[in-house]
Design goal:
- The structure is a single chain.
- This protein has a single domain, classed as Multidrug-efflux Transporter Regulator, Chain: A, Domain 2 (Orthogonal Bundle), CATH 1.10.1660.
- The protein is built from four helices and three strands.
- A three-stranded antiparallel beta sheet has the order 1-3-2.
- The longest helix is centred in the first third of the chain and has 24 residues.
Length: about 80
Amino acid sequence: MTKSVQREIACQLDLLVMEVKNDQFKKLLTKKDVMRILQVSLSSVDRWMRAGKLKAFGIEGRVYFKRTDVEAMLTPIN
């Protein structure tokens, strides 16, 4: 395999990885996002994290939540 073909493959793989990461980040929420969506305080979000009701994920020292996990906390009343 020539170096130009290897470079092209590496470039295409990098683009694919970036695309996947961007798609994943669209589905992630920050604490502020969760607070705004659920209309609760930061202490409520922290308490839910500690209690295991809301699973947090860390990326480079930042805390994120899966949008699906946050939506799953919403339950119909009637």
